[in-house]
Every structure is written in structure tokens, then in C-alpha cells.
Specification:
By secondary structure, the protein is α+β, with helices and mostly antiparallel strands. The protein has three domains: 50-119, Monooxygenase; 124-247, Lipocalin (Beta Barrel); 253-334 and 366-439, no CATH class. The chain is built from 13 helices and 21 strands. A hairpin with a 2-residue loop joins strand 12 and strand 13 (284-289). Helix 4 (53-61) runs parallel beside helix 7 (85-96) and helix 7 (85-96) packs parallel to helix 9.
Length: 463
């Protein structure tokens, strides 16, 4: 109220003082009377109601759209002003990035207020990045505002892309306003009857979609048909393609991180590129695979650096193997003694600074030649020829239906800000990772704790 009256926060609002009764004036300082909260709101409404309409339009347009319905209940004047479409045009632009002009809406017979209330607000909870929650093949879904539509784009791995190429997406569903000015969900998958009706159920940090077409699996490669979706049979014996997704957050960054965390693409096998998430947790870094049909995690020990020696260590596999094996045996002993976290990475908050080598130190390191050791295979031969740092790490793999993970010690190799790799010494296999160049919206975790919770659950068994 003081701000709207043009008074500073250190000065009392005169209109509120005038509205106070004897009971409020007599109340001890710092202990408001029971009804004071309501009187403050009433006083603010009375004060604002005296302002010019154009000023109120500017003020209301700067408020979050979720607050405006309550504001409309304050008085009749506010209720009428909040039907001004320029207010909702600003909210659509600032909250959802909408750039449609008024003429396009008028041709459709719609207003910004209707677009906000019937499309953006009800479905704002699904905007962002999601992982398919299934025991089979996990993929990603990116839900974005696309003009006067909300579109869900499914990540589709390509067999022939290099790790530096962009992620490939195809439309999965769209939400739009119809001529009846009600939002409808349309499925964009399947060979026949496309698009067709689809139902969305939104929960906290997860949502599910269902439609009555069962030909979606025909569009997928043969190797993925059985794992991509879960087909449920309802009581009426109609088959539904039912998919459940859980929210993904991108890892928060810290200036001391070795490199900027985020999403990376890796060539794991002949079935194409897979997506993994790099995050830092104090003494450890974690590379979590978030697409594919099995669980795989790289645990990088940032306190156990391997000296490169002008790159000579890569030329002799036996020497590299012996160095890593000695570190691995020491780590196992310390885990048994309780001096090393049994899980490796330790789940320290990613908002805390990393312990060990920093990003500044990595950038100052002189590159040394890198070659794959003799006998180590890779799906990609176009890998960087110089690297900056190496660390001991462990590749932990859990296949579908297996509760016991396989553990493969190896070497984490930092090439530059956008590339790293891992050599698994037991399998003699090298994986190259390149930073994903796509940008994503609505992927910031509300807190470091929320990101940790997501990371712990991201590869758990589906609910």
C-alpha cells in the first residue's frame, strides 16, 4: 500500500493510518490487533481505487498472473480493470514468452485473458523437461509454449549423429484452444488418425497421458517397440497407450566446478546417442544416464587425479590399468573402513563448491596428447586429440531385471569445457561425451535439495 501511495518503505502509509480505528491505534507496536491484517487489505484497496485507471493497469500488469483473480475480488473497479486485455498480454509475454500479436487473436475470436486462463495457467505445471517413467526404454520429453500452442516434443535418438550434433525431437502432443475457447489435447503420434484426442492428468512433478489409439508402437524402431510404452487394458476392454513422465531439473552450477554441469550426449552403443547429466557433489562428480533401457552411472573421484605425464600413460594400457587398479583397491579398503562414502559420490548438495581441481585450474592446464590405448575400442574415432586432466572413476551398470549392479573402474578424461570421456578398463571401451547445445526452459530446480531428490529418483523403478 505504501508503494502504491508513493511513500517509501520507511514511512507509514497515510491512508492506512486514516483507516485505523482506536483499537488498532492502541495496540502495542509490533503486536497488531487481530483484525489488522484485513484492515490493511481494505485500506490498500481504498487507496488504490483512487488511482487513475491507466496507473492501475500498469500496476496490475506487473503482478504475477496467479495473483490477479484474488485482486479482482477486492472491488468492482478492480474487477472491471482486470478485463483489460493489455494486462493479460503482458502476463502472457513475460511469464510464457508469447509473441503473438493482437490481430492474430482477434481473427481467432480470442483474447489474451482467455489464452492465459484457459491454456497457459491450467497447463503451466507441465512446461519443462521430463523423463519417461518406464521399466523399459527411457526417453525425454520437452514441453514448451509454441505460439498459441503448448507442444510436447519427444527426444528420438538418431543412429548416425556425432556427439556435437543437436538433440533430435519430434512432436508427441499439442494443447490448443478450439473455436469453443476450451483447451484440447491432441496426440501427434501414430500412423493413422493423426492428430487424435489425448488425455493428460497432472500431478506433482509427474504427469501421465492416455489416448485410445494403439498404433503408436508401429512408428518406432523394432528394437524399441516393446519397451517404449506401457499398454494398459481398461475394464471396458479398450486398449490405451498410457505414458507417465517425471520432471527433470538441470543441475545447479558453482564457479568452482571443474566444468559447467548440464546435459551431454554419449555414443554408448550402436543403437545411437544417449543423454547423460553431469553434476558435481563436493569431492565427487556424477554422470547419470537418463535415456536408454538400462541404468548407468559414472562416479568420478575428484580427489583422485591421475597424472598424465605428457600423455605417455595412454600409450601403455598395462601401465594405465595398474595405476587405476591400485586406486580402486584403496577406495574399496577405505569404503570398508568407513573413511570413504560407500556410494562414492556422497550426495553433497551441488550448490556447494567442488572439492579438488577447479574449473580455473582446468583451464590453465596445458593440453597433452591423447590417444586411445591399444586394445581399447570406441564407436567414435573422431575424438579430441588433446586432454587436460584425468581422474579415477567407476562405471556402475544395472540392467533391466537385475538388482545387482556391475562395477567397472576406469579413467575419466577431461578434454575441454564441452567434452569429456571415460575408459572402462575391464571392458576396454571408450565413451565420448559432448555437451548438448539445445536450450531448455523451466528446468531450474527450486532448491538444491529438490535437485538431489530428483537425482536419487531419476532412475528408480517406475511407480
Amino acid at each position: 500500500c505504501a508503494c502504491l501511495c508513493g511513500l517509501g518503505s520507511s514511512r507509514a502509509c497515510q491512508c492506512h493510518q486514516e483507516c485505523q480505528g482506536p483499537a488498532e491505534k492502541a495496540a502495542p507496536q509490533g503486536k497488531p490487533a487481530p483484525a489488522e491484517k484485513h484492515l490493511e487489505a481494505d485500506a490498500a484497496a481504498l487507496c488504490c481505487a483512487d488511482l487513475p485507471v491507466e496507473v492501475l493497469v500498469e500496476i496490475f500488469g506487473s503482478l504475477p498472473g496467479t495473483d490477479l483473480p484474488s485482486l479482482a475480488l477486492a472491488c468492482t473497479k478492480f474487477h472491471h480493470i482486470l478485463h483489460t486485455d493489455s494486462i493479460w498480454r503482458r502476463r502472457c509475454r513475460e511469464e510464457f514468452g508469447l509473441r503473438e500479436n493482437l490481430q492474430n487473436l482477434e481473427m481467432m475470436g480470442m483474447s489474451y485473458r482467455e489464452v492465459y486462463a484457459k491454456l497457459f495457467h491450467p497447463y503451466r505445471g507441465i512446461l519443462g523437461l521430463w523423463q519417461l517413467d518406464t521399466e523399459g526404454y527411457k526417453t525425454l520429453l520437452n514441453v514448451v509454449v509454441d505460439g498459441l500452442l503448448i507442444t510436447g516434443w519427444t527426444y528420438g535418438p538418431c543412429l548416425n549423429l556425432h556427439v556435437d550434433g543437436p538433440m533430435q525431437f519430434k512432436p508427441s502432443f499439442r494443447i490448443c484452444l478450439t473455436e469453443r475457447k476450451s483447451a484440447t489435447v491432441e496426440c501427434m503420434e501414430g500412423r493413422h488418425s493423426r492428430p487424435h484426442s489425448r488425455h493428460i492428468q497432472i500431478g506433482k512433478n509427474r504427469f501421465s497421458t492416455r489416448c485410445n489409439k494403439t498404433d503408436h508402437l508401429k512408428d518406432l524402431p523394432t528394437r524399441l517397440r516393446e519397451d517404449w510404452a506401457r499398454v494398459l487394458v481398461q475394464k471396458d476392454r479398450l486398449q490405451y497407450d498410457c505414458l507417465t513422465y517425471r520432471r527433470l531439473y538441470l543441475p545447479p552450477s558453482h564457479p568452482d566446478d571443474l566444468i559447467r554441469p548440464g546435459l551431454f550426449q554419449g555414443k554408448y552403443h550402436r543403437f545411437g546417442l544417449m543423454i547423460a547429466m553431469l553434476s558435481f557433489h563436493g569431492k565427487y562428480a556424477r554422470v547419470t544416464k537418463i535415456t536408454g533401457n538400462f541404468t548407468q552411472t559414472l562416479e568420478i573421484h575428484l580427489m583422485r587425479r591421475i597424472q598424465l605425464g605428457d600423455g605417455k600413460i595412454f600409450r601403455n594400457f598395462n601401465t594405465l590399468y595398474r595405476v587405476v587398479l591400485e586406486i580402486d583397491e584403496q577406495v574399496i579398503r577405505e569404503q570398508e573402513d568407513g573413511t570413504e562414502e560407500s556410494g562414492g559420490y556422497g550426495w553433497q548438495s551441488p550448490s556447494q563448491p567442488s572439492v579438488g581441481e577447479s574449473g580455473a585450474a582446468a583451464s590453465e592446464e596445458q593440453p597433452v596428447p591423447f590417444v586411445l590405448p591399444v586394445g581399447v575400442s570406441s564407436r567414435l574415432q573422431n575424438y579430441p586429440r588433446t586432454c587436460r586432466m584425468c581422474f579415477y572413476g567407476v562405471d556402475i551398470v544395472t540392467t533391466c531385471g537385475s538388482g545387482c549392479p556391475w562395477r567397472f573402474p576406469g579413467v575419466f578424461i577431461l578434454f575441454d569445457e564441452n567434452h569429456f570421456g571415460f575408459i572402462s578398463l575391464e571392458t576396454k571401451y571408450f565413451i565420448l561425451f559432448g555437451r548438448v547445445q539445445n536450450t531448455f526452459q523451466n528446468v531450474e530446480a527450486p532448491s538444491p535439495q529438490a535437485f538431489l531428490k530428483m537425482l536419487k529418483n531419476i532412475q528408480s523403478r517406475p511407480v
